[in-house]
Write a structure and sequence with these properties.
Helix content is about 60%, strand content about 5%. Helix 1 crosses helix 3 and helix 2 packs across helix 3. It contains three helices and two strands, in the order H-H-H-E-E. The protein has a two-stranded antiparallel ribbon. It has one domain. The relative contact order is 0.16. The longest helix is centred in the first third of the chain and has 27 residues. With about 90 residues, it is mainly alpha-helical.
Length: about 90
Amino acid sequence: MRRGARTALQSRACRRATAKKTRGLEHVVASLKKTQSKPARQAALLAMIKSLLVAKEDDPIIQKTLNDTMAAGKITISETGPVQYSL
């Protein structure tokens, strides 16, 4: 097989990973909208994201989902730690 060529299995895995990232953001935002008690600190929010995505502790999808949520303007985190929501 030539270098850089993807097999069908690798291609499916790549599509699944991309879909997981998109669903992750949507799932986290939907869950935050539903819950009455939202995490007040970044550490608690990261723990919630980890739980919702059923991810391992060091999975980069957790930080990526947090960054995507911030980029979408759904949350802001100040330097002192409190999380503010605009869902």
